[in-house]
Structures are given as C-alpha cells and as structure tokens.
Specification:
The complex is a heterodimer of chains A (371) and B (240). Chain A is an alpha/beta fold and 371 residues long. Chain A has two domains: 115 residues, abc type-2 transporter like domain (abc type-2 transporter like fold), CATH 3.40.1710.10; 199 residues, no CATH class. Chain A is built from 15 helices and seven strands. In chain A, the strands form two sheets. In chain A, strands 2-1-3-5-7 form a five-stranded mixed beta sheet, sandwiched between helices. In chain A, strands 4-6 form a two-stranded parallel ribbon. In chain A, strand 1, helix 3 and strand 2 form a beta-alpha-beta unit. In chain A, helix 7 packs antiparallel against helix 14, helix 9 packs across helix 10 and helix 10 packs antiparallel against helix 14. Chain B is 33% helix and 27% strand. Chain B starts with 8 loop residues before the first strand and ends with a helix. Chain B has a domain of 121 residues: 3-Layer(aba) Sandwich (Rossmann fold), CATH 3.40.50.300. In chain B, the strands form two sheets. In chain B, strands 6-7-8-3-9-10 form a six-stranded mixed beta sheet, sandwiched between helices. The chains are: A alpha/beta (371), B alpha/beta (240). At the A-B interface, helix 8 of A face helix 2 of B.
Amino acid sequence: MNAHRVFAITRRLLQQFRRDRRTLGLLFGAPIIILGLLYYLFRGSGPSVALGVVDLDQGPLGAAVASRLEASSGVDTTRLDADAAAAQLKDGRLAGYVVLPADFSASAVRDGVIRPQIHLEGSEPGKSAGVVQAVTEALGGAAASELSTSAIKAPQVRPDVSYLYGGPSLDTLDYFGGAFVGLVVFFLVFVITCVSFLRERSQGTLERLMASPLRRVEIVVGYMLGFTLLALAQAGEVIVFALAVLKIHNAGNVLLIFGIETLLALAAVNLGIFLSMFARTEFQAVQFIPLVIAPQLLLSGIVFPVSSEPGWMQAISNVLPLTYAANGLHDVMLKGADLGWGAIQLDIGVVLAFCVLAVIAAAATLRRRVA
Amino acid sequence: MREGSDGALAVEVDGVVKNFGRLRALDGVQLGVRHGEVFGLLGPNGSGKTTLIRCLVGLVEPDAGTVTVLGRRLPDLGVLSRVGYMTQAAALYPDLSVLENLRFFAAISGGDRHVNEALEFVELVDRRDSVVATLSGGMRTRASLACAIVHRPQLLLLDEPTVGIDPQLRAQLWDRFRQMTASGTTIIVSSHVMDEAARCDRLGLILFGRLLAEGSVADLLAMAGTDRLEDAFLKLSQVA
C-alpha cells in the first residue's frame, strides 16, 4: 500500500466536497435540524393533555380528586358538566374526562371501592395513558388523605373505562400505522419520480421531448399518471398488508383510505418533478430526502401528534401537506370518519390544492431547466 | 443573401440575439436555409452552433430577432411535428428496446408514424428488440437518427451527428442524408469537421455567435481566395 496514492484519493474526495456546497450544507446542517426537532418534540413544553372533570360526588372525596387533578402538571384540567364534557370529547378538545358519581365518597366508605368513570377519546394511545395515569395518581392521593382518619382500609379503585374511538387494545402501531401507510407511499413515489425525471434530463431525452410538439403540462400529467398507477398498486399492497396481515386498527372505509393515498401519491409525483428541477445529479436528488421527508416524518403528526407540539412547531406542521393526509388517515382509520366529516373535507381539500399547486409549479419550471 | 421569396426558405433567422447571463451566445444572426438543401453550420466549439439549432426547435427563446421555420414564426408548437431533431449525444431511453424508443418518439411527435421504414432506413431491423443500453455507439447513433425521422419531418436538425463515429458509418449516414434531401427534406447539420462541411450544399460560418459568411463551398473559397476550406475558415475568422 502506497500512502501517497491513498492520500491522493482522500485529498481528491475532500476537494470534490469543497465544490459541492449543497452536500456540505446537508452534511452539517441536516443533523442539527433533525436532532433539534426531536429535542422540541420530546422535551419541548407542548400543551399538556386536556382533561375534563365532572364532579357529581356528594361527599368530600370527589372535590379532593378534582382539586388534585387541577394541581397535576401532567394534565390540563377543567371542571365541566356531563353534557359539555361529552361534547368536547367528541370534537377533540378533550383527551378524556372523568366522572365522579354521586355515591363516589359513600361507596368508598361503605364498600371500600371507588368507581370513577373514565371516558377516553381513545385515538391517541399516549394521551389516553396520560389521562389514566393522572386520574389514578389523583385518586390514590385523595383517598389516602381524605380517608386515612376514618378507620377504613384503603379503598379499591375500579375505574370504568370507556373509549369513544378505538379501545383498550389500541396500541402505538395502530396510532401511527395508518398515517405511516401514507408516508411510505409519499416517500417512495417522491424519490422515484425525482430520480427518473432527473435521468430524463441527464440522458438528454427531455431535450427531445421539449423539441417535440408535446406541451409541458402534457409531460407533467403523463408522468403523474404513470407514477400514480405505480403508487396505487403499491398503496393497495401496503394497505392490505397493514390491515389484513398486521391487523392495524381500522374503523373506516378502506376505499376512503385508498382515495387519500391516491391524492398523496399525486402530490408526491408533482413535488418530485418540481424538486428534480433543482438537482443536477441523482446524488443531489437523494439529498432531498433528509430535507423534504425527514421534517415531514417528524412534524406531520405521523409519530408525534401535532397537538402535542409546541405552538411554533404546530405552525410549521400546519403548512405541510402530509400533516393533512396523516390527519385524514387517522380520522378514517381510528375514528371511522367518512366524507361527511368537515375535518375530512378539509384534509382532502388541502392535499388536493397542494397537488394542483405542484402541477403548476412543475410545469412552470420545466422549460427553464431543460439544459 | 436573401434569395427567392420567403416561401422558398425552409428556415429564416432574422437578427437573433441570445444572452446567457453576460455571455452573448448569438449576436444578431441572419440566416436563410433553402428547401431541400443540406446546410452546414460550421464553427469551433462554443461558437453558438448548438444554441442556434436549439433556437430553431424553440428550446431557446431569442432575446431579440425572429425565427421562422417552415413558414411558421416561432414559438409554434404545431410546426415541431414537421421538424426532426437529433441531439449531440444519442438521447434515447437506455432501458427500452430500439422499437420501443421509436414507437415512443413517433407517438409524441404527432406526425405520421413510420416505425418500420425508419428501422429499415438505419438498418436496425434485426436489432429492433435489443435494449438500447446493449447497443454499440454507432448503432445508438443510428437508432437516434431513426427516432429523429420516424415522423418524416420536412426539416431535420442534426447537432454534430458524426462526432466520434467511424468513417464507414459517417459515409453511410451522409448517404442517408442525401436520400432524404432527394425526397424534399431540408437538413441543417452542425459540425466542426472540415471534410464534412465539404459535403454540404451551402455553409454558414459561425464564430462568437455571429454568422461570418454564408454560401456554397465554392463561394466561401472564392471569398477567402484560398483553395482549402480550412484555410478559408481561418482567413474569414481573422477578418472578423
């Protein structure tokens, strides 16, 4: 081994990178951005879990539990009546509410049993666990302080837990599995489109297309159809695997899931064509993955719910198309949403608008970037 | 230099200027190409030949001046169905067969489809099912030519078609070009090879984005007062 020749290769490599500012930026910028995002997602002080308390107890225990919940740092507690609590649970403002029945204290003293009713929204397992944990802690603390003087043994806690959506078996995979189906399709279609459009340019065939009577929009739409067909076959496979083999929870219409996937694939194709205009090599096209895909993976509510992000981060999430697609898939698969839901209409509308924007942007940049 | 009525010209370039940033690629080019002739654009690398050819298919929009192709003022997408364009490198889909490439370019060119005739014309009938990536360089060039003529264009633009090609194939290609002009096709071919220039009916000398001279080989030799085209080119360049 000749050190001189080895160093020649090393030096040449570093020289090449010095010219490639974009790669350097990515190498040193992307990890900071991604780790930074993770920091805020895990450690940032996002809004805490919203909990409602319906205190119907005629004895002292209910009030003690309620005030302990209000003091708890894990949940953001409001006192409500039963109707308001049920309504707010349905429109997503509460992650859960606890009803302390009229005989709450009496039952504790008489039977040694306390029976709170915990109503969970249920579509986000993390929040459900937070509610149950906070309620359990408050019950234990309140029971210890209120009942210790009366010579009664510590009461048993037997909560009645009900779920608006999902159920006790809903796990983390059920939560992000649905939206992950969307991400997989979006990601792969984006990369394939981006690279093959780039190849069209580097092998010179795009020049030939542009010198033919083809209109720019015909090229973009042709590409869109081709890759969307591929993406649909892929989405079908992924959905079947997720639902039939992995048994990921689905309360909604499979066709609606498929429809949202289709829109997402359309968006990915056009984004791929548009962004391929800004890459000169396939290497640079692959660099879009950490720039385009990683932030969306972290911020679009696929793994971390948007509602648990700090406010400024939610603002970013709210402009990402994948956020709306993920939200739509969550609503359909976990809550059984259909086209009649306003939230689904909004999600589909936003993704559709993004598709149209991306088609226009892709067609508009096509001509300038032939050479 | 204008001869005959405008209708007699297959291509008319009038005062075309094109800048790329601070670089002036075309500087007031004036040019007329007659129907059925082989017109050679002769000039060194970077003189503006490719930019001029790209202007003729609407890939480059001039900053000033007009381009008229087959009687239609550009930009005009419709006229492109009557124009064939062969780029410098054999721009084909390497993962498709020759036939699949031909069918694709026939379909998008919007003109008539003569896939089999095109295959016979470039003598690739027996290799039509071969994937382009497996073809030799010469076969690729022939396949590329087939894709450029599959819709029977009235005007064929060839950007340095014979670069890196062996003498036999070059002679064969020129045979084909002559066959096409005999049936009425107009051909514009760019080159920096002098012996190739001698095969053209008329030539345009391009340097620094300007057309220095235009005429038949004999005209240019007379203009420069030499008997070798290469000397004529050097002499005419110095005058400019």
